[in-house]
Amino acid sequence: MNAREFNGITGFQPVIPRSGWPWYLALILVITGVTMASSVQKLVHQANMLYDKGNFNEALQEYDQALIDSPQLLEPKFNKANCYFQLDDLAEAINLYNEVAAESKNMELVAKAKYNLGNCYFQRGSKQKDSNLQKALEDLQTSIVCWRSALEIDPENDKAAKNIEVARLIIKDIIDQLNKQKEQQQQQAEKQKQLQEQLKELAEQQKALAKQTQQTKEQQEKGQINQQQADDNYKKQAEEQSQLKKETEQASQQMQQQDPNTPQPPQMQQAAGELEQAMDKQSDAETKLKNSDGTSAKQSQDKAAEHLENALKALSQENQQNQQQQNQQQQQEQQGQTQQQQEPNQPGEEQQQNQQEQKAAAAPDATAQEILDKEQNEKKQRQILQRAGYQKVEKDW
User: Fold this and answer.
1) Does residue 186 surpass a pLDDT of 70?
2) I need a labelling partner for 103 at 20 to 30 A (CA). Which of 26, 184, 279, 322 fits?
3) In the chain, what are the domain boundaries?
4) Mean pLDDT across the chain, nearest whole number?
């Protein structure tokens, strides 16, 4: 399949194939009003042919050489961005599309760069829906800003208008999910606050009971009470100790039910472990009190109180971290709202991206629905591989 060559800049008309290699993106070869040197024209032509064959890395080398020979040319840079899009290196594609849009005086090329830029953000946002809703929301909002910019230049760009509608529907769904998450987080925070207060009260009660045990022991040693009175006191304290243990068990069960679908964070695991140890010491203390062994009972009670305080401390740290995360999320939402109102000429991008396997991809100028369909199909394939086990396949592209 040969690359199309154009007299001037023309619009892209992607065709979605039923099978086999996706139809290629129309690449730009001739610059309006500028005559390329034959060597540069040859390099771009060769690069376009490599692009059409799916040899994107090799095409990049040819485009790079063309830009070395004629660094002022923007069409090879635009085509180079298309290669990075196909290689799923969206960060690099975004950088190049932004450069083309900022440097070009050809508004048709600017409109194409803006449109493809919107597709980059849309594709990246679609990939993040399952891992980071907030980042997905920000990218989708930015994609709309880019498509609106393309529409301002080319009001007849029906694909950009349709893409905006598709993105808006997805954004609405994401916002609904984020609101649901917020509601769940608020409920979770309230439960943890109540649990925190409960642990604090249990620790104070355990200390008070240990103090009563110490007083009984001292009164017996000083002869202020006889053995029978001491035994009665210890028996009463054993009953109170048994009740404290039951309340500690209830607190432990409540902690285990905080979020059954999500693994417990380290602080919650630490708090749960401390409660288990506290209950063990409470059981020891109850047994010693029934045997009127005030000295050993007091030691176990002190240990139980210490574990309760440790559990309270770990839970407090978890609550603080949750609050910090909620604050950061709110800040990100505010930044996302501000970003939605601004033109993303030079957006801040992550400088390091994981190199992914070269694979067939939707064309850079595909519609949002085509990108979305492709991402959903890839997601299904990933799920199938995860269930069946990974098997390396031969690439035919």
Assistant:
1) yes
2) 26
3) 1-87, 182-337
4) 78
